Amino acid sequence: MNILDVKNSRLMVSTDVVESIKEIKINKKKIKHTISKTNEQFSEISFDDISKNSLNVFHTIAFYDKQKNRIDLQLNREGIFPFELNNKYQAVLVGRDHEMLIKFIDVSEILKKANKLDMLSLKVNILSESSSEINIGISDFSKNELNNLLLIAVQKETKISHLVPIAFLNEDIIIPKKYFSGVFDLFFTMIINSTIFKLTLDTSELGYQSFETELLEGKSPYRRFVVDNQGIIVESSNKSINVNFDFELTNIDHAYLLTGELIIEGEVEKQSIYFDRPHHFNNPDNKNILKLFLLSNGLMSIIDISEKTYTKEDTKEIESTVKQATNLDITKIEIEDTLLSFKIPSEISIPKKIQLLMRERKSKEFFFIEGNKAFDSLIFDFKEFLNGTDNKAERWDIYLVINAESEEKNVYRIGSFNDIIDDKPNRFYNFFKQSFDVKSTYNMYSRIYLTNKNQLSLVKGNISNLIKEQFEIKTIIDKFTMRKGFVNFRIIIKSSYLTEFDIGEIYLIQRNKDDLQKRRFEIKRIQDESNRRYIDCKIDLLKEDLFPLYWDFYLGIVCENKEYFIRVSDVSKKVLEDVNSTISKYQLSVNDGKEIIYPYVTLSNDLSFTYREREYFESSYYLLKENAAYYFYKLFEKYYAKKEIWVGFEKLAMSAHESGYYFFKYVYENKNQKDFYYVIRKDSPELKNLKGMEDKILYFMSFKYFVYMFAAKLLVSSDTKRNSYNLKMKKSKLAKELTDKKLVYLQHGVNGLKVVRDFYKDRGVFDLVIAPSEYERKMIIDHWGYNKSEVVTTGLSRWDALVDKTNEIKYRQIFVMPTWRTWMDGMTNEKFMESEYYQKYNEFLSSNKLDKLLKENNVKIMFFLHPKFKNYIDLFDFKSENIEKFGFLEVPLDEMIMKSSLMISDYSSVIWEMFYMKKPCVFYHFDRDKYLKYEGAYMDFENDLFGDVSIDADGLIDIVESYIKSDFKEKEEYMQLRKKYFTFIDKNNSERIYQEIQKHKKSLYKMPKMKKWKFTHVIPFKVRRKILDIIKK
């Protein structure tokens, strides 16, 4: 008897037997198959097409030799053994009583249906166990029913799922013991007569506690250990994947490789781990190799290796191959859904192995796409490429690789080389079919096109840019007026291909990565002139249901009966000067004056609208005061120039509890700087923190405040410049002066949890950056683009005041502070309550289990929303008396931190304070993928975080319970990270900051060239112009 086996989701047969297999029949019908040699002992069998076979039902399978004799092949043991067919389907071989059946399965569809079902508890009893397997007795099922079982393992951290092999022993089942390690959640499905049942294991009799239970008791089966991924290189070929380390691997029990579709177990060697590569996992560029799991003596390490992968044919060899590529003319290029098809010359023979080599033009990254021959065409499915490459604008050149597995492979640069170069619009093909979680103008689409040399390439970008490129469209707004809500403007659209498309309508679209809110307006008139089209538009802002924050102009471009939105870019010099000339000219009051709408020109010279709340100080009174203070300052400019005026402030000039305040307090108490002033509003609840320092207070919007703001030599703050004035105002005199003021950035908090592109050097916002540690200093230099001399390591000023105050209250306190999300800017209350953000936090805070846990253990939760979400705090509704909620500045933030025993956040930088104070931290990452897509992070969330992570409310409550039971003791593995993240842990941070400012005084005091000014400038320009005209006459 010859043996079939399934290893790492691959159907294997011994090489000596495979040579005799000439046919495979399913339900007595021949099926196309491929046999690939994996090593000297085994070969892999894969099926090329299963589309004619029904899913979720058993089929007979048989193997035949050249003489049509049936070959006796059996599984090496009875059971259910799954293996991969392709990226969508799996198969299971079921062997029982010397009979073998096969079933084809769409696992994703089963999971989709099963997730909507309630679980039925499946009682199991442990019968015996070995070092690698557990023998389990299951009652209530017959032999035939057991054949329909599917055991699904879901990896806890990533939610990637795969099928688990099950062996039979009479009417019992045998499951690999590693699946009870705590790394996976397990559940059965059973498909009978097209009905799916979902069953969960009742393991109460197993002798193994569930992962959650052990976690609560502080003895999780696998605690984390950290492996530095810097010394890891991942090499791969068509047959295997090798993970190589620069150190010896000792005591590793199991190693798993996670891809976007499955989990593969590897063989651990001295300094490497070897993984067999499933045949369908065919992309040597490994864009979907994600993580490596190592299990060792009750410890677990998750290593992100997505950026560590190289092919055995490394980049230099790929570049050499590309340079040697010859041109190959292809014809009948077509796009359908995610498929690219084309014909090649008939004289070129096509072997079984063909690939497209995709090469990114700038980064030189590469990606392989497997192809198939269908009749006289080659077909390539781009689905994996579209899902696996970065969501950013890119260009990829396309090469055809023939004889991909041979050393004598042929590489061709493909294109329509025998055709004349067509007009540009005709060189773009249909968009690939792509699905996105949300509709947004930020979505990145991909399409194939012919370059100006008729070479085939692929471009990725947003729809606006792709359509503009296809038709060589340029736009400009050259006329603009606005009166009482009516906006009249003219768009000039320039293109050599105006007859190739029609104009749809004009739109205002809210700037949002997570939603597509648009307002449509009719166009008044369109007039053509040569290669220009003049489009006159009129919109009534008062008729439209606008809401905060930014709205951009888009134009509808219609081609092939479909309308695409293109961003209206650029304004004329006249429009720029007109819009930026005065504050009040185009300001429209709405909602009884509580809100305002006004146009502004972006940094990229595009016209947009801002819709926001009106600040109390946005009135003619304060504007007159500001202008008067400006002219007063100009009269005495030489006097103020002799002073070294520093101005400190914090968020919205409202707070006094962060590093801006503590550094000011240090300087004031040590009398280091005579003219250091602090800006704060008179109605701030934190004004009391400045008691005894009133002589150095600048009350926000006072005459003295304006004068000293104009005269300031240096701004010193933990926030950006505009927090000292008006975040949105850009046209006033002080707003323009602030642009040239130098700022020492004390840091709002430690970065790492969020990419902050607004802080990059090219934005011109900071002149000296204070870093809390060498770890962050390196990150700021590497990512933000500052020179080494512009970033200094001192520690944060507010850390000097941190002391543990947990014993000053009669209960244990948990501080919950989520941060904001850019894609939620300006949400209505209704929209906010529909958001995942609201629902996840409300689910946690409203939990009856949590309420009971808090009451029984004398624990209270203090829930605090980010200042940008302060208006939503009352929407959270929970009945627990042990939970209190607070808005911005309703309680002192630093006091809250010092009195708390545990902090829960998602991505807020405030959580670093708790870690600094050696208190446990917990991360609630229910929207991690979305956050990383829209915001990004500098840290690796798998390995760099200094606290436990949960992705749902139940898991978060379990973690809270475990810390309550351990008396809020910080875990050892997180303690060890403190040395990595903090250079100083003392009370001298403010002193170091002061010394660094003194060292950098020369560059910080360097002011831009003073603009020439005359006293006649007090008279407005238009009035001066009329006077001069009269004098001339």
From TrEMBL:
InterPro entries: Glycerophosphate_synth (IPR007554), TagF_C (IPR043148). GO terms for molecular function: CDP-glycerol glycerophosphotransferase activity. SUPFAM superfamilies: UDP-Glycosyltransferase/glycogen phosphorylase. Transmembrane segments: none annotated. One of its GO terms (cellular component) is membrane. This is Glycerophosphotransferase.
